[in-house]
Amino acid sequence: MFNALNRFISRLDSDAPTHHSNQGGWGFQVLRNKSPELAIEPWFDFIVGINGRMIDDSDPALFSQEVRNCAGSTVTLGLWSAKGQRTRTIHIPVPPNNPSLGLTLQWTSVSTVSNIWHILDVPANSPADLAGLLPYSDYILGTPEGVLHGESGLGELVEDHIGRPLRLYVYNNEYDVTREVTIHPSRDWGGEGALGCVLGYGALHRLPAPLSEPVAAPGETLFETENARFSNEEARPLSADASQFFVPAAVAAPGDFLVPAQLTSGPPPKSTPAKKKDKKHGHSPNKAFMDDYFTEGEKKSRELDHAPSARNTPPPPPPKQGGPPKAGGPPKAAETAEKKDADDSGVD
Q1: Full-model pTM
Q2: Cα(219)–Cα(231) distance, rounded to whole angstroms?
Q3: TM spans, by residue (predicted)?
């Protein structure tokens, strides 16, 4: 009996559909919207779900049949937007007589909208400046001339249009509008590049959410305005006695220092002041302490580095025998003996 039950459960698990994530997945990209009342943007929006289920089949007939099944009621669509890479859900009423949404769709990968180029710097009198491209808020989405594949797609297209007009689809984040721009690529404008602008490409230059959209979770703040604390910590008053943490410098004695809370029971031990050679210049009360501190640190550093000192430095080796005598110095013993022998021999 248990074996039959296990086989039944295994059959159910194998028949269960697998759901894929929206990020990096596939969906129906909206190419045209004939219904102005629908809050669906062509090119930017992808239909990735319908009636609470993820779309994992590229057959458009199944999608159309699901919409017709909702005739006279509403259909729920899950949309993924390239603006900010967000997912939202909308409810659209389906008319009973003509069960259609008025959308032109294409099954494609969500990653196709990642082939965009962010306009960064635009020098004056460059082709990009003359075409009206705005720095840091314009994004090149594509061109009616063809499909751009990869980061080098735009550069190859520009090379083919040197000296000829080139049409580009440009989206502006500040105004949340898309426009067609005509630019004339040239290498004779006096600067670098045929477009005359700095482009950004990659994950750091994706389309951001429009500025008109509200921020996530409005009204939330990271810290409280009066007194910041953890969520599981009791509120503590701001009028705490500050003397338990630090001793102000204006009240402390000349030889005292800032006392942490752990050392408030007694003053720190005073170090023996070093001898001062010159008392003409004014020194701070902490001068002796700092001198001892640096002297002790230098001593430890020498011990760790095995640096030679004046006390333990061995004497220099003796000079080699038979070397040249120093000028003006006393004669060596061998020279004195030879001179004495010559005098005793009586040889003139």
Answers
A1: 0.54
A2: 17
A3: none
